[in-house]
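Now for a specimen:

…
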Amino acid sequence: MEQRRSILTCPIWGHRAVETMPVDACVCRYECRSCGTTLTPKKGDCCVFCSYGSVPCPPVQVSRTARLSRWLEDGRVVVWWEIDDLPHAKVCGLDDRTDRLR
């Protein structure tokens, strides 16, 4: 079972905040509550939780368990997993309107 809470640590001043991660989207922008810096994912990560969190996002937690994910050339990531022996897949791509991967 994946974890839903992660501690985000700002790389500028080290401020830490406990946040709840969405299970259906990846968060691509997060504003530090202390210094106001906008955090974005590091290259190769799908979201700020994977880059700056104590726990990666739920889709990555699942894909790491299953070891089934890959990056596409256009920057989207494909994640596969199984629930009750049924295969599931999700393609995450940046949605400019929500600043989340969908």
In short: Residues 94-102 have pLDDT under 50 and may be disordered. The first helix runs from residue 48 to 52.
